[in-house]
Specification:
The complex is a heterodimer of chains A (107) and B (105). Chain A contains five helices and four strands; from the N terminus they run αβαβαββαα. Chain A is an alpha+beta fold. In chain A, helix 2 (30-41) runs parallel beside helix 4. In chain B, strand 2 (53-60), helix 3 (69-80) and strand 3 form a beta-alpha-beta unit. The longest helix of chain B is centred in the N-terminal third of the chain and has 16 residues, at 10-25. Classes of the chains: A alpha+beta (107), B alpha+beta (105).
Chain lengths: 107, 105
């Protein structure tokens, strides 16, 4: 499967996907860490995440997928939401909590 | 803009990059640009090994009116072009219209 198809499958088969540097338990970048903390503050302690540092093809591919040059990137129900600044803004306005309504953490 | 010159001291390359960023962002007709170099805060972390720099940008332009935050950021990324893929490792953005500033305390 080519990387664009793989990303497409990841974001459509999981309600929430965070492409980040490191893992939620051990983020490797302050922006990724903030993104994790925001999702956790939205009552989503667990979510599907992809560590781009482990996969150079995804690290490059995700920037092409949504034509967005930075990481982290958040997808909800297959839609690109934004990066860390946008997540923070949407969290403070309550928009992010609304988007995440009805989404349960994976088992 | 000439490429980063390894002969030059680090701060001179950083200054040249900031001038180039300001120049490219001027295509958005900003009333105000505040560009803060945060690189020192991120020195040495795993994601920053390619040596790109970290910036915080606050930019005010009437051109952001009617655009979502996502689309404001896209305009900025387009203006900065290839710098986003090379010399800028991270950019934190606060993009506002003049009206939004006036309505804030």
């Amino acid at each position: 499967m080519d990387v664009q198809a793989l990303i497409k499958e990841q974001v459509t088969s999981n309600p929430v996907v965070l492409y980040m540097k490191g893992s939620p338990r051990a983020p490797m970048c302050g922006f990724s860490q903030t993104a994790v903390q925001i999702l956790q503050a939205c009552n989503l302690p667990l979510f599907f995440s992809v560590n781009v540092l482990e996969d150079p093809a995804i690290r490059d591919g995700i920037k092409v997928f949504s034509n967005w040059p930075t990481i982290p990137q958040l997808y909800i129900r297959g839609e690109f939401v934004g990066g860390c600044d946008i997540m923070r803004e949407m969290y403070h306005s309550g928009e992010l909590q609304k988007l995440l309504e009805g989404i349960a953490a994976p088992d | 803009m000439s490429d980063a010159n390894p002969e030059k001291p680090e701060h001179a390359n950083a200054a040249a990059l900031e001038i180039e960023m300001q120049h490219r962002l001027s295509t958005l007709n900003p009333q105000q640009i505040d560009l803060i170099d945060d690189s020192a805060l991120h020195a040495g972390h795993a994601g920053a090994q390619n040596g790109g720099r970290h910036y915080r940008l606050r930019i005010v332009s009437t051109e952001f009116a009617g655009l979502s935050t996502l689309n404001r950021h896209r305009r900025i990324y387009v203006a900065l072009g290839d710098l986003m893929h090379s010399k800028i490792h991270a950019l934190s953005i606060n993009a506002l219209t003049p009206e939004e500033i006036d309505s804030r305390p």
